[in-house]
Predict the structure.
Amino acid sequence: MAATHAGRRRLILVVLFLLCLLFALFPEKYRSAATIAPSDPSILGLSGTLSQLGAASSVFGNQAAVEVTLRVADSIYVRNIVIDKLRLMERKHFGSRIAAHRWLANAVSARSLRGNLVQIETRQSDADFAEELIAAYAQAIRDRLGTINRQQTEYKRAILRKLVAEASDNLDVAQANYNNFRLQTRYSDPTTAIEAIGSRIPALEAAIKAKEVQLNAARQFATDGNMSVRQITAELSALRRQLAQQQATDPNEYNSVGRVVQQSTKAERLERDLMLAKNLYLVYGRYLEGTSVEDLTSNASLRIIEPPYIDTSRQFNLIPLALAALIVLIGFAIEFYSLRPPLERRMSP
């Protein structure tokens, strides 16, 4: 009787094991996967161009690109793109869009690999549909990252346009102030003209010394009443008056040192303001041009390393396979218990 029960038990366990093993193999599942990698302009050979245009930095800052890609892959926006592109509401007959989102969240998974890679995979009974689903997912992730890049670039462009407008107004004001100073002083080139005025003092001092030498030489052969001596004396007096006028510190005195210092200081300040306004305008304008290049490379933030493919290895249904392993363990446990009954049963007559 015990042998009959043991035989039935073993037959039931074997049948259950075979059924679970059958369900683990059928219906056959096909694994489709794609490997993608976040990228930046330097990888594409655009670092030099973007640096010159002020667009070399990544919009994601110091955040890990892999983590951003994983978060985008698990976002509702990406699933919406996939649902609309594959018409999953019609093909899978979902009752609501929420049900389609739940199915996608369970059917498609994204995980990080070594080497800053991300792999997207799914297991479906239809191989063509599985490959189509992964292809749509990879493209949706790329489109979403491109949209984020373009939104950030548009925000940057709005700020730069405001800065360029302010820099242009400041440049107009600085240019107008510098031109007014040129009109007031009647100097076409204030720096050159002021330097020329300042160089007159050494020239006058040299001329005075030459006239003094000439006067001393003339006095050796003529008196102070001589016409030549009187002419040299008059020229020397005129040169000394010009030198005194040049060396005056009053800024209101024409061609004086004080006036030269005042005008040179003002000219340097106006030129400095004008140069700063020009540099700011050029820098902001170059950055604004860089945003156009960022728009062109917005979809270059993701590279598809491995296009969607079907895994050639045999795929097993994990739940039936786990149940088959559990049945084997239960069968071994029962047999072990049957071969070694408890001590009380072995000691009984």
